[in-house]
Every structure is written in C-alpha cells, then in structure tokens.
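User: Please predict structures.

Assistant: First:
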Amino acid sequence: MAQRGRRLPRAVRLLILFVGVGVVGILGYRPVSRIPASGVASLPTLTISLPDAQACSSIVISPDGSHAAYVLSANGGKTVHLDGKPLARHSKIRVPWEELRDGCLPQLLPGLFFSPDGRRLAYAVARGKQWAMVVDGKPGTAYDELGAPIFSSKGRRIAYTARTGRRWQVVVDGSEADRSFSAIGAGRGLRGDPTVLDPIFSTDGKHLAYVAITQTTIGFDYYLVKDGQKIGPYTEISDLTFSTNWARYAFRAGIADGKQVIVDTGKAQPAFAALSAPALSADGRHLAYSALNDRRSPVLIRDGKLQSCSGDRRLRTPIFSPDGKQLVTLITGKEGQDGLVRDGVVVAWAGESPRDGIYTVTFSPDSRRLAYLTHEALVVVDEGRQPGIPHDWRFVFSPDSRHLAYTVAVPDGVVPMRDGVPLIAPVEEVNSLTFSPDSVHLLYSIRQKSAGRAQCYPCIDAARGTAFEKIFPDFYFPVPDQYYYYGYTAGQLHRVMTLISAAEEGRERTHIRQMVAQIMAPGVSAIRRRELSQQLTHAQDLVYAGDVLLAAAELASPMAFDDLAATLGGLHEKRAVPMLIRQLAKDDWEWSAARTLGEIGDPRAVPPLLSAMSRKHKPARSMIASALGKLRDRRAVAPLLAYLQESPDDIAQVEIIRALGEIGDPLVVSVLISRLNDPKKIDEEEYVAREIANTLHILTGQSFGEDGTRWQAWQEGSRPTAK
C-alpha cells in the first residue's frame, strides 16, 4: 500500500508533464480569459470611482447589466477597465468607433463591445498603422481596417469584417475566410461605394451569413455567403432577413435587365420593376412583399400569390404579427393619405391631409392589439385614439400586451403615460420606458432641473428614486422582484439594486390613476365623472393627485377637462394656474378654466381673465366675471365697470355686478346708483336692477331696494329711512 505524501521520482514527474503538454497541443486547447460569470441573481451594489467626465462618456454596460467597462487615458496610453479594475494598457484604442452602416450617415459606436451574456469583451487597438481586434484580452491579427465585432446570441462565437489592402474578408472566431472580396455588405454608401455591414449569426450560433461583393470590369457582383457557400451573383443584394429557426431566408436582389427579384431560400421569385423589402413571419411559414408591375401599378404578393392592388406606390414593407397569422400593409388613398390594411380589410385612415401618414405600425406581443402613429395621435385599432401624441415617436406594449406606455410633450415639459393616464407631473425629460417582466410596473428615468441644476431620477410607476447626474438607459431584472440600474454622480459610477416591493408607490396612487382614467375615458356619464371628481378631492395623497390631474388636464377632451379642472379647483392647486391660463384661449375650454381659476384664487389669473373677457362670447364672459369676483382683486374694478356699460348680455351684466360686490370697492357705489336711476335700462333689465340693489346693500349696508331715488338721496346725504 502506497504511503500518503510520498513524492514520485523526478523522472516520472517530468514524463507526466511532457505527456500532458502533448495532449493539450493535440487537442488544440487555447486558454481564454473570459469574464467570470456574475451570478446575476445576487449582484451586489457596486461603486466605481472615475477620475473625470471623459471616463464617464466611454462607459459601456454589458447587455445583461452585470458588468461595466470604460477607458482611462494616462501618460500617453489608454487602459481598459472592467468593473473598476484595469485589464490591459494600449497605446491607442478605437473609442469611440465611427462606422458607416446601412448606407446612412456614420454612426458612433461605443468602441467596447460585450457579448450578450456579458462574459466576453472585444475592442480594437492600434498596431502601427493597422488595427487588431482584442477578444477576451488577446489581440488578433492586425489589418488595415476592421468592422465592429458581432457576437452570437449566447456569446460563444464572434465575427468581424477585416480589410487588407483592397480585399475584405470575415474573421470568425479568429479564423480567416475567403479574401477575394472587394467589400462585405449590402447596399451602397453616400458616394455609391459598397457599404460595410455586419455578418449575421443564426439564433443558435451555428450558422453565419453575410453579403460579399466582388468588383468586375463593369461594376459589382453581389453574393450571399451562407456557411461558406456563395449564392449569386446579382447586381445588388439588400434587406436580408431570416426566420427565427434559420430554415428560411429572403432578400431583395437586382438582376441584369434592371428589374428586381425576391430570392426565397435560394430560389428567385418573379421579377418586377421595383420591390419592397421582403417580410418573413417569425416561424418562416409565410413570405410577403410589395411590388410595382410593368405598368407601375402597386401589387401585394403573399406566399407567392398575387393579391389585390395594394395601392402603395412607396413600396413599404408588409408586417406580420408575432404569431404569423395576420399581415398588415399600408395603402395610399385617392387624396394621398395613408390607409392601414389588415388581412385585406382597411381598418384605419390617417386623415384627410396627405402629410398625415401612418408610422410605427406595431403589434402587441400576443398579436391581439395593433397600434400606429400619425402626426396627430397614437391610435390603437378597435380602441381609438390615445390621449396626447408620443413626443419621441415611440411607444411600448407590456409583455402581457395589456398595457401601453409612451411619453407626451405638454407645454410644461414631458409626461410618461400608461394606458392613457399620466403617471407624474411634467418634467424636462423622460427616458427608458420599461415594463417589469410581470407587466405590473413601469420603470423609467426622468431629468428635472432643481435650483438651476439638472438631476436624473429612476422611477417605478410614480415613485421616485435617488438623484444622479446621469442614469444609464436600461433597467435589468435578474429576478422578478428585483431590478437594478447604473447611475453616475460626483465622479462615481453606481450599480444600484432595488427590491420592487421597497420602491412601489402603494395602492393609493394606483387608485388615483384609475379614477383619472375613468374621468378621461369616452362614454363615461357626466354623473359618474362628477362623482369621481368629488372622490379625488378627498384623496389621501393630494400632492400626487395634483400631479396626475395637472398632466391629464393638458390632454383631456372638453367634457373630461371640465371635471378634471373642477377637481383641481377643489384642491386649490396653484400649480395648475399656468395651464388654466393657456386653456382660456381655447373656445371649448375657457368656461371651465375661468371657473377653476376663480376657485383657486391666485392673483396671477387676473390679467389673463381680463384679457379673455374682452374677446369671449356671452356664456364665457359671465363665468370670467364670476371668477374675477372670487379673486377680489381691485385691478378688475375699472375694466368690469367698462364691460358693464358695453355688454348687451343681461346674464353677463348680472355676473359683473355680483363680482363688483364681491371685490368690495366703494368707488363702484355711485356708478351702480346712476345705473338704477336710468329708467330706460331698468325697464329692460328688471333682474339686473335687483342685482344692483343686492350689491349696493353689500357695499353700504343700506336697504333701499330698487328705488333709485332713495339711493340717490342717500348718496347726496339726505339719508332716507331704509325699507
């Protein structure tokens, strides 16, 4: 039996070492310095000190949110840091990375590229006049030019384009492919040169495709290269698309006679004068595209069959629903406006103006809801227009498809909306609308100035978090009840982990939004809206109720605005004054706005109310006079007296006289007594005379009724006996 701890002879140990090295060499093993797995579900908070703002500008967060990388400059060199620790120092790193994509203007890329799982990092470093791609800490071969690196979905493979001299190739996992191409890409740049585009990995990472271009004596030949096999040549290739399982692919190609064809998994379809990009359903079972035939008439082709005329000469790409069962196309009406067609049936028109097109057509994840944008509204098909217009032309469905979020620009800033209801009062900027995985909560970041200094805050629903100078775009959910984000302030980068239960706003705020949503909803009865308005004035969180009402009033219909404004008046919400002053200029809103300004009682409303009174029609003028009376501001006395003489409306005159009594200026007594002694006017306006008598009683304490003679005698000092 061998003794424990006894060392083997030196010769035997050397033999084992040589055998081990030989086996490693035979197997082709190369150690890879990958980033350790983060254990995302238990990520701790992280604080990294940064020396300057330039370092902050180079920060890149991994797609899974587990790591942060950035570049620091010092002593003529640059060092890549990962989570606060230095990785490698280089003379020059390509940060930021400028690249021409899709034939458009150059795009600035961050220069540091993470794999989707966050475990691999790639970037380019200078080698003299050439560039080498550093992957997992190891530099590769140097080339004259490099394209941005592309990782497979699981991060196990990496590919990028590279140029040596005038020849391009694709480098896959460090191995070089065919060097015979003039360019790798699809499409043309601003000067007509082929544009460098990215290779495409399949979902499982087992396949790779790209478009390769070779120069001939008369132009360029385009090929699709899929797993090393060339398909072509064509005079042009663009809009390459694959089904989710990669069993089917399609692209638009040019042929020799100047026409275009759709190539469906290697098979060319009938040629047309012009084509849209092809659309494949996610399961790969259906293919659709628009085309112009030889007579330049627009047609739709679906699964190889010619459909009825699409009517869209702009040849916009059809859109399949996520389940592949519905197809949406756009058509152009006789007047030039856009129409939305779903499975051959027109479901919406953009409007009468040709300029009011349909944009950003989007299905919900479950394919049951369909939304789109026009210049005037966000519309959900079969549900109607949503309040406001998304100011950044974007909106997002929740994962369960039940909720819709977007941001709306209002005069005082920007408001995040959920299901048509504002979440908070207007702020300067709203970014990164993100639903929680269970669709219950909406997360976003806001930017707001306070004391002349801009601050950024993370928010969940209506609850606001800690202030930062900058919050990075994404929120991450390692587990359903937690989320985290990155924020920068005072020279430090923070990773903040938050429990959703600790950040929730509570049931009260949710209930407030639900009541506001009912008030704004079409078809709700006036009685029900009034009941909800009364309930809101007794809410526990009155500050938040004011926030939501302020934003909602900017977006409501005239009927809903009346009840929302009444609630703001009941709350005496002085923050609403600027908004209400703006609404005075709108014919359908001025009555409610004037009433609420009177109830709030802010003296800022006096000049706008006087200005509105000079131009508004009879009903509005009476309400404006009533509001001025409630404000009790003597600046209104002289204008009200002038309007009293000018206005032919008896109702407006009564309200003006009543307002003068509420203001309580004794200078109006003589004017009102003179009015009572004008026989012509009193005969025509008996109830006006009664209101003058009541007002004189309020101002003087005397009771002479409508007898102008007795009032005149009292004024002259004879002091008649009161009735």
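Second:
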Amino acid sequence: MSAELNAVTVFCEDMRAEASGSETLVGIWPDNLNLPAFPFTIPKLCIYTRIAVGIDYPHRNLSVTMTTPDRQEHALGTIDAALFTKSLEDARFHGAPMTTIIMRAVASPFNVLKPGRVEIYVKAHRKKVLTASLNIGLAPSEPNAS
C-alpha cells in the first residue's frame, strides 16, 4: 500500500469527539434511505470520511466533495498540504505503512429535492475515489384502511 489511496465514508445522525480522543458516530445510516415525500428536509446529515494513504503517496492536495440527487457537486473540504505532509512524516518515523486522515462534514439542514443518490468522493490529483453512496428513495405508501 505504499503509494495507494483508500477511503470510506459513513453517513450518520451525529458525530462526537470524546475526551479520550476517540470518536462516536451515532445513528449510522444504511445504504438506502426512504423518505415520506419530496422535497424533504433531513434535520442533520453527518458525513465522516476516513482517508488512508500509503507513506509513499505522491500527491499532497486532497479534497472531499458531495454530489446530491440533483447532480450538484458541493465541496466538503480540503486536506491542508502541510498537515498531510506532517502526517506522512509521522507515519514514516513510527514505521507505519500508511497514515489516516479524517474529514468531517455536517449538512444541517440537508434538503433533498428529489430521489436519487448522495455520493461522496475523495479527489487527489487526477484520481476521484467514490467513498460512499446513499440511495434516497420514496417510502412505499400505506394502503388505505377501509
């Protein structure tokens, strides 16, 4: 893995940094989310992305983006090149084969205009890695009781 990039994203209801240095993700969502109607407002959408890169990864400019069901792309953030370089140097010093960088984003509120996919990407140089896909659909209607 010395020059590779891998990443995964989790969608959840809340994220908390604990005093111990750990993190708590609350209400992790499945890959499919059915809503009662469109448009719909989700009060809070938390996006937790964990990016792992090998210590010989050559690129220092990383960004995280979100594509919404209406195919709009939104920047969630960039990884500071100096922080990235420092993290790689620390990994090398400790003999680790890789380093991990966490990107957190919160959309509150998150307005969903129509069914479709929310996709999260990590972009580095000419590489675009899909890290998560949340399929948002319409919940089946309840049959009328007679």
